[in-house]
Amino acid sequence: MRNHLAEPRLLERAALSCYQPPPTALGRTLARFGRPPPSPPLGRGGAISLRRNRCRHEITGDRSIILKTMSASFYFVIVGHHDNPVFETEWLPPGKVESKDDHRHLNQFIAHAALDLVDENMWLSNNMYLKTVDKFNEWFVSAFVTAGHMRFIMLHDVRQEDGIKNFFSDVYDLYIKFAMNPFYEPNSPIRSNAINLNILFPKF
Amino acid sequence: MAQCVQSVQEFLQDAFVPLVAALCSDEAERLTRRNGLSFAELVKPFCRLTSEVHMRDPNNQLHIIKNLKIAVNNIITHPPQPGAIRKLLNDVVSVSQPAEGLVANVITAGDYDLNISDRSIKASVPWYSNWKETLMELNTSTFYTATTPWFESYRESFLQSMPASDHEFLNHYVACMLVVSSSEPEPVEQFLKLSQEQHRIQHSSDYLYPKWFIPNTLKYYVLLHDVSAGEEQRADSIYEEMKQRYGTQGCYLLKINSRVSNRGVDEQIPDPWSQYLQKNSIQNQESYEDGPYTVISNKSADHLISDGLDIDIRVDGLSNNFKAHPLQLDHPSDTSGTLDGTDFIKTTPSLHESKKSSSGTPHGACLTLTDHDRIRQFIQEFTFRGLLPHIEKTIRQLNDQLISRKGLSRSLFSATKKWFGGGKVPEKSINELKNTSGLLYPPEAPELQIRKMADLCFLVQHYELAYSCYHTAKKDFLNDQAMFYAAGALEMAAVSAFLQPGAPRPYPAHYMDTAIQTYRDICKNMVLAERCVLLSAEILKSQSKYSEAAALLIRLTSEDSDLRSALLLEQAAHCFINMKSPMVRKFAFHMILAGHRFSKAGQKKHALRCYCQAMQVYKGKGWSLAEDHINFTIGRQSFTLRQLDNAVSAFRHILINDSKQPAAQQGAFLREYLYVYKNVTQLSPDGPLPQLPLPYINSSATRVFFGHNRRPAEGEKQAATHISLDQEYDSESSQQWKELEEQVVAVANKGIIPSNFQPTQYCLNSYSDNSRFPLAVVEEPITVEVAFRNPLKVPLLLTDLSLLWKFQPKDFNVKHNEETKELGVCGSDVIGAEVIAEFLINSEETKMARLKLFPHQTGELHILGVVYNLGTIQGSTALDGLDPSIGMQTGKLVSNGLSVRGRQDLEIQGPRLNNTKEEKTSIKYGPDRRLDPIITEEMPLLEVFFINFPTGLLCGEIRKAYVEFVNVSKCPLTALKVVSKHPEFFTFGGNTAILTPLSPSASENCSAYKTVVTDSTSLHTALLSSASSGDFGVGTGSQPEVIHVPLLDSVLLPGASVQLPMWLRGPDEEGVHEINFLFYYESIRKHSKMCHRVLRHTAVICTSRSLNVRATVSRSNALEDEEGRGDNMLVFVDVENINTSETGVKEFHVVQVSSNSKHWKLQKSVKVSEDKDTKLASRERAKLCFKAVRCKSFDETYTFADIVFGNEQIISSASPCADFFFRSLSSQLKRAHVQSNTHASQAAAKQSFEAVRLIQKCSEVDLNIVVLWKAYVVEDSKQLILEGQHHVALHTIGKEAFSFPQKLEQPEMVLLKFFRPENTPAPTRPTPEQLSNLIKTSLRYPESFNHSFHQKSLCLVPVTLLLSNCSQADVDVIIDLRHKTTSPEALEVHGSFTWLGQTQYKLQLKSQEVYSLQLKACFVHTGVYNLGTPRVFAKLADQVTLFETSQQNSMPALIIINNI
């Protein structure tokens, strides 16, 4: 099972270092699961280092438009292997800063409850992006599962598939880079400013 | 959904049972009430039939009924109020709680172990690897059931309290029992009356409630006979009469109360009523407070039928509720009187019952087991003989009706519909659909007949027939667009389809869905929708369709009923966890939602339970906001349930975890926590102090300080800095202090450091060595500095903060007194504790608190922790940005009154041990005894003050200051010593100094030196004096750094103070100097624990540049001086003013130059300039030249020679001049010693070394020059004269010596070498330079020599060669006169001359010997010749051939030969 993989983080590294589906653990695993090797993460391949930067700009440009035009609120969380939040952030629409303060815990509840459906859906799909997996009141829950079984969960109150998909793939890039840091203990909370800023940047 | 006790079939059967009404006469009621029960209650436990019953269906097929249950209820004529129902359900739920102390019911789901049934929270997280196994385990596990009895009782009560509705007949009365007592005078009359009564209730339009199944209800006549009271014969005869009148199948004689009440109370009779009546009794008590309604209901129940009042209620009800939704058929105002009565009829007896039960009488006190059997028999008889035949007959009738109508009326109906209503059909819109759903059939409408038949079939468990009837009815209703009726039919069709034996068709879940949707959305009837959901969910659950069940349950949650939503959500949560792949997180979330709803519904215990169960999933994962929310709710609920300990721990979690909450929220949490805590402490005021979680204490940062705070400087007096808590720890300086203390202790103990020596530690911190118990002195305070940290965003206010301690008194002098007495934390006669009234810690601040203890007895003290009141300040958020000092200035901070007293322990972990192998491989920590001081006996306490102590000096400046020593203790002190790394910095004066302490003010303008007026004649010649170094305390001990303070009698009595003069000399290097003094003293009495005490002082001196003195010494060419001695030298002293501050120092005057040496002395000044004294303005330089001669040397006595330039001689052999001289000398010696030691060790083996030393020695001198100067300084337009001295030590001839230590050039960074450098061999050969100094040569000859070459062609000139042995040893000298001029040009210039006579001499010169050799030079021409051609070779006498080397030719010795 994928769960039995010795070192999920290695997969992340493998995914980054050799973008071709590697003949290593990743390839084997994916073959075993019948999941086709991910087209170089999210359809972006080729010369990595150069292209990625460019992509970032494009993407951030797109996203900033999306997020600016929408007065929606978002809550994003990366969930680790032990159902622990690794990284959390939220965006409120410009108008209501902190007004939902007393309901902030609700975001966590919803995201956490959606994990059951994420875990169920990821076996049903060949994609990392699982689209909307759950819904609670006005919240939609979209999810993304990395090869190393990190779960990205996004709560949003407006349907916005493409934007969220792009966002997820950007975060995935960032996350992989971050996970390559030998000083980063997998599954431990991310407190780095780098990842914060990079994620927050398009918003503000 | 949680597992239920009943199977799904049982549940569905019991949900719908045939209802039988009971109408009792007053007398009969009285009989039953003797048992504390009403009639309906009396029979209730026996209402389930134990045997199978057979019945024939309309097709004459035999049909078996199993486990039939009937319900007997007293008639009540008004419908239940929704409010009352709600209350009833609420009570039912709140009464039913999980049993405490059950076996833990653990569900393992995925990564989680969930403990469902009790409150203990346990969640472990195995990682994926065993997830598969746990899944498998789960499916096979027998333990994964969780029961929710509250839900089952809720469901039961809910179904029982369902008001009868018009669209169905399931809870309409099928039969009626008329009960009369045999003791009545006219029982038969009474039967008639009751019969009429029943008829009136059913058929009169006054009563719309209760509802009856069919117009001619079965009446069953029951004669109740009290065996204990009534005559049996009479009863029998009445029964006979009844049998004749009503037939044997329509009446029954029931004999009860056969027990004589007082007898056999102790007999154990089972009480089958308890399980049925318990919940109602509570509802009953509540109903007292229910206002007029309850009162009336009680009345009406008492009288069974009340006329006016009841109608009044209905009118009330109408007027109140008429405006409500027209479709709410169950509403009392519409159906008026559909109360199924169970609960409210029960109220009356249970009222009495409750009174009885309070007096201790159980139910059924007058009933024996035979009576129980009789009642069971009665019910069985009634069902077999009365009820079922009646039902069978009715079904048959209805069936006949339907069949007969099928052909005609059905078609007629449909035809009429087609004809009259056909046009409308296509126009039906949704709105109309809704409207038509309000269609009401008249009670006897044929559409309802089939439904009626279906219901009857259902009640008697004939599900196949029921299903087909429901199905037909459903079609009819849907055709008529009677949605409400259709929904009812759909619901029951689904249920009966499910219940059909053998399950010929799958369960039509969509029927249920439609029904629920219709009930909820179109009819707005939540009660019926709920019933549907309950039924359907149970069915789905039985088919393992958990996710559908969960969806169904969740869909019904709504705002109108929190209790229902809560229960359904909880069931949904259980559905999630019972799924094939358990959805634990969904479970948790829905438990939270359920808990939220429970708390809104006032079900606190259930809410708490839900939250606690959900907590297991969230705990420790990092979902901090969620966790905070849960903890907060748990805390609140626990508090309201008075589970204070739980509340406290829950709130504690919120506060001590890294909180992401905003400040306001934290403030609220904190206040709540404090409030709860306060309640806890109030409950048990005498209990131990609680451990408070806030603020955090960084226990390893705790510092302990022993001793008083130092007095600050008073005017000119400056106290010794000692040590205080304000000083930062500096490992370097603490190491220095330690070394100093070791030195002084070594001196005090005659050179040996005692083995148990431990450096005194006044301030203990995490760096100090805390492995021993520290020593504190009685009556001296102990200060503990505790580092508090406030993790919250709101300020914390600590009040009445003090230390917590334990004390064990001990007398250390008396050994046998081992009695240890443990004292409590208070007892100010033993230890006094300082209390800090208010201590504010701002948000996220780290702050130190200093707390003091005053020990009054000797013993062992243990400081345990701190005790304080924890509180917040009012308007904490507002104060956030404010300067806290404002609050402090105003003195009293406004506490909002909420504070709790508690403690926190100080537990300090010692350093990790790493010495033995065992310690290295395991993790072990040493002890840390910082907080466990031993209080020892009194010790003297010294205070030192410095008077007129300068802060700035010129380099080499001498300043006089005073030191005051005060003994502030009650013990005399002795053996006062001071030790410093810089002994050349200060002196107390030598032994020769006058000890009469001049007062500081008197000596202000005097010179620091001792002076004598000299006469002018002695100018430029030396004045001699002598002193030995021993007089100045130098050179006696091996430790020149340790200086004894010259106290009178060497004792300082308690309270006494002594002022001593102290001279300071500015260090030679410019810059800021920190000079450490360590004062050492002892008590007169020796203690076992503490031998000495020390006091530290760090003086900071800033020095600025003054003079730079350089000196060289060279051999005088004049071999003989006036006295005819051969040894004299010239000393050149360069004095340069290098002071840079132009404004301060105007000029320097060199007032005196002194020499001191064991062997040499200055003799006179060689005048270079004509100035009287040497003035040096800025950047000027003067050169002085002196002649030095050897003087007689006595052992260790130094000869001082002063050459005075002014008119005052400074006696250099007295204090302080000599002191500083000797100090600088000793420090230099020490330095040299270190160097020579290293050399000696390297070369000691060499035999040749001795020779080298000898040769070296001959160029050595030991002359020390002291330059005494005055500086004229203008400061604040006042002229000051500063004095000072510089020392130059001359060691080697020809080598320049400096007054200030030469800075060694920092070696450039070199590659690090990893091999041992080879030992550089010591020079085995003396350098030529050294050898050249061995023998001093000079030629004596006339400068010009006139010779007449005409007369004599050869000119002979006598020349004397003076040879002087400078060394201390015998030297062999070889003089070679042969010409060996290598330079050809010298030959050209000077021409040549020859030496006559012996060309080579071999001589031996004794030490210091001067030898003159007469030579003759022979010239042939006039001219200038260089006579310096003799080459002198020297070697040490005892060396054989070594070291023979040429002497340097010094100057050309020119001679002019003139021709006359």
Layout of strands and helices, then pairs:
The complex is a heterodimer of chains A (204) and B (1460).
Chain A: H1 8-17, H2 25-33, H3 40-43, H4 48-69, E1 74-79, E2 85-91, H5 104-121, E3 129-136, E4 139-145, E5 151-156, H6 161-180, H7 193-200
Antiparallel strand pairs in A: 1-2, 1-5, 3-4, 4-5
Chain B: H1 8-15, E1 19-24, H2 26-33, H3 39-43, E2 53-56, E3 62-65, E4 71-74, H4 82-95, E5 106-109, E6 112-115, H5 131-140, H6 149-160, E7 173-181, H7 187-203, E8 218-226, H8 232-246, E9 251-256, H9 274-288, H10 292-303, H11 308-321, H12 332-335, H13 342-359, H14 369-421, H15 430-437, H16 446-459, H17 463-480, H18 483-499, H19 509-522, H20 526-542, H21 546-555, H22 562-578, H23 584-600, H24 604-618, H25 624-640, H26 644-656, H27 663-683, E10 696-697, E11 703-706, E12 717-719, H28 731-748, E13 763-764, E14 775-777, E15 782-789, E16 796-809, E17 831-833, E18 836-841, E19 846-855, E20 859-873, H29 884-889, E21 895-905, H30 917-921, E22 934-936, E23 942-947, E24 952-954, E25 957-967, E26 973-980, E27 986-987, E28 1011-1013, E29 1022-1028, E30 1042-1044, E31 1051-1052, E32 1057-1065, E33 1071-1083, E34 1092-1104, E35 1107-1115, E36 1128-1137, E37 1145-1157, E38 1160-1166, E39 1174-1176, E40 1181-1190, E41 1197-1204, E42 1208-1210, H31 1217-1243, H32 1249-1257, E43 1260-1275, E44 1278-1292, E45 1297-1298, H33 1328-1332, E46 1335-1340, E47 1344-1347, ...
Parallel strand pairs in B: 1-4, 1-7, 7-8, 8-9, 14-22, 24-34, 47-56
Antiparallel strand pairs in B: 2-3, 5-6, 10-15, 11-13, 11-15, 12-23, 15-19, 16-18, 16-20, 17-19, 20-21, 20-22, 23-25, 25-32, 25-44, 26-30, 26-31, 26-33, 27-32, 28-42, 29-41, 33-34, 35-36, 35-45, 36-40, 37-39, 37-41, 37-43, 38-40, 43-44, 46-48, 48-52, 49-51, 49-54, 50-52, 53-56, 54-55
